[in-house]
Design goal:
The chain starts with 22 loop residues before the first strand and ends with a helix. Strands 4-12-11-10-7-5-6 form a 7-stranded mixed sheet, with helices on both faces. A 4-stranded mixed sheet has the order 1-2-3-15. A 4-stranded antiparallel sheet has the order 13-14-17-16. The chain contains 12 helices and 17 strands. The protein has 2 domains: 146 residues, Aspartate Aminotransferase, domain 1, CATH 3.90.1150.10; 245 residues, Aspartate Aminotransferase, domain 2, CATH 3.40.640.10. By secondary structure, it is an alpha/beta fold. The protein binds pyridoxal-5'-phosphate. The site of pyridoxal-5'-phosphate (PLP) has 15 residues, from helix 4.
């Protein structure tokens, strides 16, 4: 085939042509494809575009930085210092930025190295339904991926198989079976995203915090998805007075521009350098400009109110009696929300996802869940319009299942 082909649908690699649309531009909560068709974005590009697409305050920072300096590697830059001080100002008391990266998985790997440096121990405990990235190391923290990658790296071995339960009583039983003197860290998502969204048992963080304190284990909150007001507040794990030792974040920090970070409690900061922070693009000036724009934007808007309002609209809409009669279950927190069928034999979500795409609404899904992560700045009327389209798709699915 002619490599100059202008048929965009035949772009390689295959990963990028799973769906028959090619996107061109975006603004606010609307994405437009090359044919001019508009989509309501209820996915925020996998929970990254929390402030909405193309926000002038953020774009202007990037545009101005693009004409100044792009990357500096280990030399600090003016914009990097600004970003670090802004990030520090939003972190919980006693927790400060330790390293910047470009992707979530890189940041998680650093957090794990840091925990091993601090404790001198090896094992990392993680939970099978949680998700921490797709590097070889982070993939082996969880159980989503088939065992087709060869032997598990020695460093990240123990996945807590708690039958999917995060009830503290169950977790305590599993924790008790693993020698704590070998455990460097426990890592978790404050709200399960990849295989949900699903909220954790309310006492889960407290149980983990207590176990970590009693056993010299580093508590790592993976806030890559839940942070930056996606689930209420800058960091969801510090709600309810719990303070993790390490917070990892990404996604919302750059509003779509790749940047991630790791913050740690003051007591761990002495081990940061020996855990080898940094990479070629870590803390580059463009990423830092995006982060500065995001934090400025979020500080001038009432983000907590926006997140709470979206959660309420979602709950109100799906509390209509017909959804109860379909056996629809709601889960998640803030603007990281899911709909699923209580009956495990109904696996309609992949098709509902495609029907929604056809109808001009972008969501995401698992086999069981339809996942909604709207931009937090979406107008309430726009979100309600999206919910109506979802409701109609679910009605049509139920009608078809009933043979109507
Ligand atoms: C909770 C969580 N951790 C880690 C990651 C990995 O981030 P990245 O894809 O930027 O490597 C993700 C990405 O979806 C995530 O949701």
């Amino acid at each position: 085939m002619n490599k100059q082909s202008s048929d965009l649908h035949y772009a390689r690699p295959d990963h990028y042509r799973k769906y028959p649309i090619v996107l061109k531009s975006a603004s606010g909560s609307t994405i437009t494809d090359v044919s001019g068709k508009e989509y309501l974005d209820l996915n925020s590009v996998m929970g990254t575009v929390n402030c909405g697409h193309n926000v002038p305050l953020i774009s202007d920072r990037l545009v101005s930085q693009i004409n100044t300096l792009w990357n500096s590697n280990f030399f600090p830059t003016e914009i990097q210092l600004e970003a670090i001080s802004k990030i520090d100002s939003i972190l919980p008391q006693g927790i400060n930025l330790a390293a910047l990266y470009s992707t979530g998985a890189e940041a998680i790997e650093f957090a794990l190295r840091l925990a091993r440096q601090v404790t001198g121990k090896q094992h990392i405990l993680s939970f099978k339904d949680h998700f921490h990235g797709k590097t070889l190391g982070t993939m082996h923290l969880v159980k989503h991926f088939p065992d087709c990658y060869g032997p598990v790296p020695e460093s990240y071995r123990t996945v807590i198989e708690s039958d999917g339960s995060d009830d503290p009583a169950v977790i305590e039983r599993y924790l008790g079976a693993i020698p704590a003197e070998e455990v460097a860290a426990i890592i978790f998502e404050p709200v399960i995203g990849y295989s949900g969204p699903r909220s954790l048992h309310k006492d889960f963080p407290r149980t983990v915090r207590q176990y970590c304190e009693e056993n010299n284990i580093v508590m790592i909150a993976d806030e890559i998805l839940t942070g930056f007001h996606r689930c209420k507040g800058w960091f969801f794990s510090s709600q309810g007075g719990i303070k993790p030792d390490v917070i990892v974040f990404g996604k919302g920090l750059g509003n779509g521009y790749p940047i991630s970070g790791v913050a740690c409690a003051d007591a761990l900061s002495g081990s940061v350098n020996s855990a080898l922070p940094g990479s070629t693009f870590a803390g580059n000036s463009l990423a830092c400009a995006a982060a500065c724009g995001v934090i400025d934007f979020m500080q001038q808007e009432d983000m907590p109110a926006k997140t709470i309002a979206l959660e309420k609209l979602f709950c109100d809409y799906f509390s209509q009696p017909r959804f109860e009669s379909y056996g629809i279950a709601l889960d998640g927190a803030g603007a990281l929300l899911s709909i699923s069928f209580q009956d495990p034999s109904i696996s309609a979500m992949p098709q509902i996802y495609l029907d929604l795409l056809q109808a001009g609404v972008i969501t995401s899904h698992t086999q069981k869940h339809l996942r909604l992560m709207p931009p937090l700045t979406i107008a309430p009327t726009e979100f309600e319009r999206g919910l109506e389209v979802i409701g109609k798709c679910i009605d049509a699915t139920m009608d078809a299942a009933a043979g109507n």
